[in-house]
Structures are given as C-alpha cells and as structure tokens.
Amino acid sequence: MLLFKRAYSFSHERAVDVQAPGKKTRHILLRSGWQTENIGDIGHTPAMLALIEKYLPGTAATFWPWYSHLPDEEVEMLKKRFPAVRIVQGTLSSDGKASTPELQAAIASADFFLHNSGPATIAWENAATFKKITGKPFGVFGVTYGLYGTPETATLSEAAFVYFRDSVSLKKAQDAGVRPPVVKFMPDAVFSIDVTNDEKALTFLKANALEEGNFLCCIPHHRYTPVWLHKAKNKPFDAVRHARNEEMKENDHKPLRDAIIEVVRKTNHKILICNEDETEQLPGKEWLYDKLPEDVKPKVVWLDRHWLTDEAISVYKRSAGLFGNEMHSPIMCIAHGIPAIVCRWEEQSSKGYMWQDIGLKEWLFNFDNADEIKRFVPAVLKMAVDTKAAKQKAEEAQKRTAMLHKEAMKEVEKASRPV
Q1: How far is CA 357 from CA 155, 209, 352, 411, in A?
Q2: Which of 113, 173, 292, 364 would be a feasible disulfide site paired with 130, CB 3.0-4.6 Å?
Q3: What gap in Å lies between CA 151 and CA 272, rounded to an integer?
Q4: What tens digit of pLDDT does each residue of 138-171 get?
C-alpha cells in the first residue's frame, strides 16, 4: 500500500503535520498540479499517485503543488482515494532555500524528484535545483515540449529519464539535443486515473434523465483559454486572444453542433454538453445549446456549473462516448475504455498527436483543415451507432497506454531507489 503522511500548509485552518519517511522507505517528491481551473490538470496528480501505488508499493510520496491555492474539494478528493495523502506547499529559490519548513523537510528527505505530466516541463528550475542541492536524481513523466519556449532544454539532459507525451515533442526535443539516459514517448499520466464520485454522478444523471450507455458528452473550448476569466489567477484581459477566439468560435463549434444534431435525430442517444475548464460553461450554452434547432434541444442537457475530476469521470464512464475540443476529458474516457474523439487546432500544443501515437488517429481531427472538418460529423455518428466497435477500439488504446505506463514505471522504480 502506498504510504502517505498528511501535511497541509494552505491556510491557517489546516494543521501542519510532517514526518519524514523511515530510512528504508523510498520517498518520491511529486511536482504536479499546474492549475485548479481545469479538471484535466487536477487529474494529473491522482493519476500519478495511482501509478506509484500500483508499481512502487511501500513508497512514500509527497505532492508538491505548483499552484499556490489548493481548493478544499480537491484535497477531499485526494484524501478519499489516498486517505493519508502527504501535501506540502511553498516555493524554492535557485540556491535551494524553501519558503516553508514543510517543503524544506520534504526536499531533504526525498530520494527522487518526479516532474508529472503537463503542458511543458513547467518546474524544470525546481528539478535542477533539487539535483544541485541534494545530489539526487529527477525524472520527467509525460510532458509536451516547446509550448512556452524551451528554457528547459539543457536541464532535460540532466534527468534520469524524460518521457514526452506525444511523438512530435519527442522529435523536437531530440533534434534540439535533449540527451538524458532514457528519452521516449510516454502517454500522459492521466491515462491511469481512477478517482470517482459515483454518488454525485448518479444523482446528476438521474436528475437529467441521462441513462447509462445512452448519451454522449460534448465539450466546447475557446481557441485560446481565456485565463483572464480564471477567478484565482487575476490575469489581465488579452484583447488579441479574445478577438481570435471570437473570430474562430463558429469554425470551431459549428461541427460540434452539427454532430449533436445528427446524433439526436438519427439515434436514441441524448447529449450532455459539459466542461473541462471553468471558462467553458458559457460557451457550452451560447455557442452550442442556444444555437441548436428546437426539435433537438429536448434531448440535450447543458451542465451549468463546473465540476470536479472525480464526478466527471463517473459520468464519462457511464456515457457511450465523448467528442469535443478538449484533451484530458478524452484521456479520462480512454482510461476507462470509453470512446473519445479529439479536435485540435494550430494554437494548441502538439499534445493532440498522442491520439495517433496510441492508435486513435481516426478519432483525431484538425479543425484548421476543411477536409478533416467534413469527416468529423460522420465519425461522431459512427461512434454513436456502432458502439460495440467503438468500445473495442477504446479498450485497445486503454491496454496500449497501460502497457506503456508499466514500462515507464520500471524506470521510475530504478531511478528512485534510496541511496
């Protein structure tokens, strides 16, 4: 069983209780949690904890979140799945001084620094500092390369291993001279996520007359995430990105509406318009639901609130599939053998290409390509009609990602052995 010790320092109401793992206990410091406004980013952490629990039994792990605010509901979700989860907060200077004693103690006792999946190696400076001040190794598990520039390039070569979550990133990094002992493709950690909230999900489904196996999920997305609308970030309004979002919203969402209409009119399935990022609720209504024909609307449900990762997964597990403009909700679906179609565009990173890397090329659509947009609605309808074949395809991808994660965890096990 995975060993965790509780340690909160996020507010004055939470007690600090940090105990260093025993001398013979492997201790991994997990840098993760890149933002709280998106259930996919939230999902990275419990997914990796599940992998550690499964493949490194007896390991002590400390979750060090990147974000400065950790909502109570996220802590509760982690505690439900990992009852004694150990969490520390703080920042680390380049000379190795932590801003909190809890973080300093975790760094001192850790055998290994594990950078979790994400849009880039966001905490590359922390990884480099950890190795410099402790002399102990670090590794990077399932990231994209190049989204925020490439300041991490030299540091990546100092890692025990680096896994990129899409083949495009792998090639870019190798061409740039990234040369750690192990550098390979590895799917995002979220493919191993298993947190659920069945009670809340079942209550929601019943209230909205959504029957198991008889509805599809659909997710809208701005071309650029409007981070200025994230309540906790206090980011300035970006007029240029907002204008681009407005310019492309019809291009990027008309195919989703057309797919909803086809599914509703030609099958017995209902549609749930839901969200992955908290900014997607309003577009779900204004760009999708409100523009649907009146005969279609009665079989479409719009989720008018943001939800947490565990409830979303419990709903996805009971759906016949998902399609839309996000990435991690499809990953959560495949993690549970549920079909999922991914749409992408130029402004996104190369993460979408992991779909072709795991054998789901037919379910990946580039909405900057008119020919691919034409093929999108027939693909969604096929998924909705031939549910048996779609389910089999999803389960094959699930097995493939599980096999790859198992191989990657062998490197984590080797690199994190206590000295």
Answers
A1: 26, 36, 9, 21
A2: 113
A3: 40
A4: 999 999 999 888 999 999 999 999 999 999 999 9
